[in-house]
């Protein structure tokens, strides 16, 4: 009986944690803040026109879907050592998608 009760308790805790992780949605405001603080200036220098947003809207863009967008944000984070957590990467990708790309999830 005690073992069965313990298993039920553990299952309940695991399900609660699992639902919390699945339900958590990206924080668009955090993504915008990170973009402004860590991405915009670098992108402005890269495109050469002083407008960091142009990198997202250029006609020869490399990002064609949401998976590529998430991968690109991850690549920038790793290569430039931005020290973003995975949830921050998700927030940035969600902000960029909402603001510029409009990909379906």
Automatic annotation (TrEMBL):
Is Iron set as a keyword in this record?
Answer: no
Keywords noted in UniProt: Signal
Name its species. Polynucleobacter brandtiae
Q: Which GO terms describe its molecular function?
A: electron transfer activity; heme binding
The question of whether Signal is a record keyword is answered with yes
What is the protein's given name? Cytochrome c domain-containing protein
Record's signal peptide: 1-24
């Amino acid at each position: 009986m005690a073992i069965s009760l313990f298993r039920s308790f553990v299952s309940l805790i695991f399900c609660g944690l699992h639902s919390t992780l699945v339900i958590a949605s990206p924080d668009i405001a955090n993504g915008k803040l990170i973009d402004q603080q860590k991405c915009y200036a670098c992108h402005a220098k890269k495109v050469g026109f002083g407008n960091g947003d142009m990198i997202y809207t250029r006609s020869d863009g490399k990002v064609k879907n949401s998976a590529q967008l998430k991968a690109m944000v991850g690549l920038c984070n790793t290569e430039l050592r931005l020290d973003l957590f995975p949830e921050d990467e998700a927030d940035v990708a969600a902000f960029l998608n909402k603001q510029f790309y409009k990909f379906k999830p």
